[in-house]
Amino acid sequence: MVVSITEQKQILQSCLSAIKHQSNLMKQCLNENNILQALKHCSNFLNELRTNQLTPKQYYELYIAVFDSLETLSNHLLNSHNLKQHKLEKRQAALDSTSTSDKNADDKSTTHKNVKNGDEISKNAVGKSATTPFLADLYELVQYSGNIVPRLYMMIVIGTTYMSTKGAPGKEIMKDMIEMCRGVQHPIRGLFLRYYLSQRTKHLLPFSNANDFNDTVEFLISNFIEMNKLWVRLQHQGHSSERELRYRERKELKILVGSNLVRLSQVIDDYNGDETYSSIKYYQDKVFPTITEQIIQCRDHLAQSYLIDVLIQIFPDDFHFATLDSLLSDVFLNLHPLLKKSELVATLIERFITYHKFESDMSTSEIKELSLESDEKQKKIKTTIDSTQLFNSFWKFYLKLYELDPQLPSEEHSELLQSFIRLSLTYDPNNYQNLDVVYKFATEKEGQIKANAENDDIWLQLLIVPIRHFDSIKTLFKLPFFHEFYLKLSNKQHQKQISLEIINKLLGITTYGDEDGNTVQEIHEPETFTTTEEVDGIFKYLLVLIKDSDKQNSTSKNLGVTKSITINKGENVISHEFLSNQEKICKVIHLIENPSDPFKNLSNLMYARKKYLNKNFDNIIYTYPTLISRILYKLKIVGYANLRQQKKKKNTEASQDLMITSNFKNLSIIIDELYQYHAEFNSELILKIYLNAASVADQLKQESICYELYTQCFIVYEENLILGSSSYQQHINPHDSLAGGSLQYQSIIHVANKLVSARYFNKENYENLITKLTLYGSKLLKKQDQCRAVYSCSHLWWWCELLIEHGEKSPTVQPEAAKEKSAKENIQKDEDQSSRDREEADDEEDEIELYRDAKRVLECLQKSLRVADSCMDPYLSLKLFVEILNQCLIFNIYGNALADSRYINGLIDLIRTNIDNLRDDDNNAKTDAADEEDDKEARLFKQSVGYFERTLSYIRDQQEVENRFEGIVV
Amino acid sequence: MSIFFKAPLDIEIRLDNEDTRKHVDVTTPHGRMERLPIYKDGESVKGSVTIRTKEGRKVEHLGVKVQLLGCIETNLDGVISSEFLSLATELAAPAILSHPETFPFEFKNVEKQYESYRGKNARLRYYLKVVFSRKSSSDITREKELWVYQYINPPVSTTTKDGPTVKMDVGIEDCLHIEFEYSKSRFSLKDVIIGRIYFLLVRLKIKHMELSLIRRETVGAPPNQITDSETVVRFEIMDGAPVKGETIPIRLFLGGFDLTPTYRDINKKFSARTYLSLVLIDEDARRYFKQSEIILYRDQ
Fold first, then answer.
1. What distance, in Å, lies between the first and last C-alpha atoms of chain A?
2. Which one of A496, A597, A677, B254 is least enclosed by Cβ atoms within 10 Å?
3. Which residue of A52, A137, A148 is the best one to mutate when testing the B interface, meaning the one whose CB has the most B CBs within 10 A?
């Protein structure tokens, strides 16, 4: 019988209008008090419910319409019953009063209570004969109805009305109705009929005493069982091609079946039980086994999943705790093999977790005024929930499940295990054994099932869950199998994801999306790692990131998906993500921290490098600088402590010194390693690193090491920087002294900057270094670079600052001074030698010894003047002259006798001449067409002149205020 | 005819307490309703006959008598009537009747063996007949039908008298196998049929199941016997297809239906039996049924 949708709609409409019509007729009859006729109309509209051409939804519409009409009938019957009752009562009362008039004639008007008593008496005495038959007769009368569906509906409506009156044999009617309902075996009609029964009896179920309660529960359970049967049967109705349709229909109807369980739980909830037999026990003994047996036996996928879900959701948690074992091992294991147990277990566990949260909330905000009773209750609950027991139950279940069905799909395994983890974490956050058990199993499991990449997706979550949960990432170290399992993941991408998760957790970054979809980061105080084990623990997870190289980038770059960063002069392209990952690793390096034992800390850092960081040489460029600066920082601390100790005790602790030395050696190995692999593009960086290390070494008075390091700097310079093209740099304006210049020039300036503050070289070494540097400077390619490098280097021969502790003497000066003294006797050297002696004498007076070599300074200045002069561009050379003038002024202020007023005056004159010449040229040129080129030159000229004039005005100022620059003619 | 041969007098039969006596509505063969007074077995039939002459004429007669007759009329090849009860009382000796006269009569404690019955081909009737005999022309008669109920006292012990519970095991091979059970096989007319049906095997697509009561009237002796069946009650007891193991309850109140007690070979003339028939209707509207006789009786 195929009915099209439009036809169905028509049928529905006609049914509805018929119901409306008949129910109106019924109401009319009721108003006329013609009950028999009314029942006939009632039966007529109930006949519409016999249709089997409608979908469940449409049938439900009919049901609703019918339901409303039946309510009016029921109300009317109840009213008329009460009316009759009332009349009868009156008569009875009249009778009573006449018979007992001598006793209390005013009985009627005394109290309401009396009337009530009378009411009960009348029910017992007279009711049997006169009142109850009214509804009882109707109950029988409607049973003549030839069709079963209307008959049963009428039976129910009258039966329940009857039940609601006092003194009715409620339980008998109840039993009768549910028994007769068996007559409807059609799934949809039967379901609705029984649903109607349960709706109507909702408030009438007796449970005043244990016996009644038993009957009520039986009633509900049997109704549930029958409904479930019908519901399951619906699946097998009709043609097999309509299977899907049936499935959908059944889903729509599931609430009808579930409502029974809901009612059951309400009833049990309302029932307090007696002292000896609690409701939990009742549930455990009676309700639970029957219901679950039914659920198991129906062998229906939908029914089982839905009903177990309902079961879990509606009954109180303590009930579940009580029946957990049997629920898991007897029920879950016996369910439909294709049913996803994981979902059910997850729901159950979710429920427990919520319960746990609720409980803990309760206990924290518990008010003292709670009655003793509830306190006891809570105690009882708490004792029933033993967390290990709980976990064990689940675990046992899981093992059994696995035993029974080794073919269980991985999704299931993963889901289950995840749930277990959540459970364990909630109930017993400090019990790592459970977690370890889970991971151990997962590891073995994974080994058995051939893992493919798709599966990994599933397992991924398993690992991420605890990471997100733990307060401290160190907890992971206590789970040996976590790592094993982690290693089993065949997909590197997933490993990476987990590692990142760990890192984020570690760095205290919790990332979550806010409403706008942006990610908001919350930063917490991160924790540090003090022991090798901890370093091991964390870095083994980072290894994948360390090894990672950003190779798969190319395709996405071609598609323009990811923004990329070009490094190494465009040789490589990397993504932002990769860079930020590397950055995160660096941040982790910072977390290797042991404030109490810096040596240990140093060795940890070294260990981390040796074991982990050097796994991918391409990436060390990102991580080593951090590592090196950390090591340097630590070394500095150690070294200073060592120096202070030395000072106090006046004797050196060889072992400490030795350790520092060896650490420096190791450090230079590290830097060297970096240099080996990244010399091509990153020499500048490496140079800086060397310089840093060197300056630290110098401060720690590790002269030989420091010398070595500077030598390394020069090697780097010679090998790479000297030839390093500056093609990637923009054109540098040669007139701008602060704009930098070429890479080489900058390198020299860097080295010079460090060297000028080095204080612990002996003289020979120091001079070696600075001479070499100056030579490099003088060999630079461009004139302006040469000039500037040389005049900058000149400062290396003329220390201006002490930079060391008062009272200490720089080794650069000391031995020299000693040598001087011996030499003084023999040969009076040239002028500058004597002048230096004089200065040194001055210094000694002040107890300040600075390395100064005026002659060299002058040589440098002369050299730079020569270079400046040889510039082809007159404007540039003018500029350089003025710059040199400024340097001279500095030396003059710091007491260099050779840069005296005579020299400076000469320089000023030279500049003036140059300016005049240029001005003439300019004037001559101005007669010509003033084109842009000239404009530019004029501007440069103006700048230089301005600079010069500012310098002169400075000299004047100084002359007036500070009484300096004597003899300089401005 | 009645104009010319109009009876010269009216005869009226009145029964004592006729107004207060219980009556029963029965349908005449012509389909009209008729109200008849009810008598019990062994009850005296008492009343009076009033005879009025018309227009004050004098009518001579050879005597007036009243008869109580019980007969069975069967419709086999024309109506054949056979009397099984015949009582008569002389009301008046031959005389001339000139003014209305009333004669009381009484049949004391008449045994009425059978219950009245009105079927399609058979009738069992009781009636009073007043015969006004005349010399010259034919007798003037007047009849009044009575309705007799035969009450059978409820049996003392149900098991022996009502018969054991009826259990039956029927089926179609590999298709259907059901077992049904009625609490008893003898029912009073106000009784309730209670029973249940177990489905042991269901391979049919059953649409619904009905219980019907069939009255079967058999007239005559075997060679030329007429049987007429009439479904008195049709009662749906199940909707939809059950599955194996289902039990369907049966409860049928008999009181509200127009049933007759079981007549078994009344005077070798006719029988009227009632059968309880269980009918299963499948989705293709095929009917499968099983009948079993039930004994009905009337009790107080």
1. 120
2. A597
3. A148
Residue A207: CA count within 13 A, CB half-sphere: 22
Pick the residue of A40, A141, A144, A192 with the most B CBs within 10 A to test the interface with B by mutation.
Answer: A144
Task: Identify whether the C-beta of residue A126 lies closer than 8 Å to the C-beta of residue A88.
Answer: yes
Cα dihedral sign, B272-B278-B282-B288: negative
Instruction: Give, in order, the Cα–Cα distances in Å from B31 to each of A565, B120, B146, B156, B283.
Output: 108, 12, 18, 40, 37
Radius of gyration of chain B (CA): 25
- Beta bridge partner(s), residue B88: B67
Please provide residue A462's backbone torsions phi and psi, each rounded to the nearest 5 degrees. -55, -40
Domain ranges of chain B: 9-149, 158-297
Residues 84-143 of B with CB under 8 A from A: none
| Domain B9-149: assigned CATH number | 2.60.40.640
Residue A907 C-alpha from the chain's centroid: 68
Neighbours of A127 (CB within 10 A): 22
Give A440 or A726, the one with higher predicted confidence.
A440
Q: Residue written as tokens 């009737």?
A: B125
A44-60 confidence digits (pLDDT tens): 999 988 888 888 889 99
A712, A702 contact by CB (below 8 A) = no
Between A407-421, A704-718, A723-737, B278-292, the lowest mean confidence (pLDDT) is in A723-737
Q: Which of A63, A57, A61, A68 is nearest to A23 (CA)?
A: A68
Of B239, B247, B253, the CB nearest to A184: B239
> For domain B158-297, which CATH number applies: 2.60.40.640, 3.40.1550.20, 2.60.120.10, 2.40.10.220?
2.60.40.640
Which amino acid is residue B272, in one-letter code? A
Report the distance separating Cα B89 and Cα A825, nearest Å.
Answer: 194
Reported as a pLDDT band with limits 50, 70 and 90, residue A157 is very high
Question: Contacts of residue B243 in chain A, CB cutoff 8 Å?
Answer: 185, 229, 233
Q: Is B158-297 in the same CATH topology as B9-149?
A: yes
Residue A78 contacts residue A161 (beta carbons within 8 Å): yes
Chain B: give the shortest CA distance to residue A49, in Å.
Answer: 12
**Ranges of chain B whose pLDDT falls below 70:** 1-7, 154-163
Q: pTM of the entire structure?
A: 0.69
Cβ(A412)–Cβ(A398) under 8 Å?
A: no
Residue of chain B minimizing CA distance to A188: B240
The ipTM value here is 0.88
Q: What is the C-alpha separation between A954 and B215, in angstroms, rounded?
A: 141
